[in-house]
Amino acid sequence: MEMRFDNPATAMPGMYEAVQPMLKVVHQGGVPTSTLELVHLRASQINGCSFCVHMGVEQMRKAGETDDRLGTVAAWAESPFFTEAERAALALTEEATRLADHNGQAVPDEVWNEAAKHFDERQLGSIVLMVGLTNFFNRVNATVQIPAGTPMPA
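Predicted structure:
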């Protein structure tokens, strides 16, 4: 796979800087960073964004995440390594990322209600915004074919 831009940061000037304030809001929402990183990783796996999957795994490893958890994010529902709150966040992530797969209600009430048992409105907003931003970056990165391991723009 060949990257379609020599330097995405110069081809799309200001994009990364424009998103930074939203990422700051996400991280001020009271959701544990490890949960937000799981959300990012799972959405990126679903969307097939190798750049974001690789970057997410690297960041999570640096933060001390275990190989057991990293290796089973894609199978979180059958894995014993996640808390009930993390499972609720991952279920919400999957539903919100796969909007086009739904007929009727985009995110089923049972998924939302389970997440609401573990997170307050501010935290739910943080998770939803993280899913949206991840999906945004997945689409940009996959479209311009930014490969795994490409350094982040400065």
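Summary: The mean pLDDT is 92.
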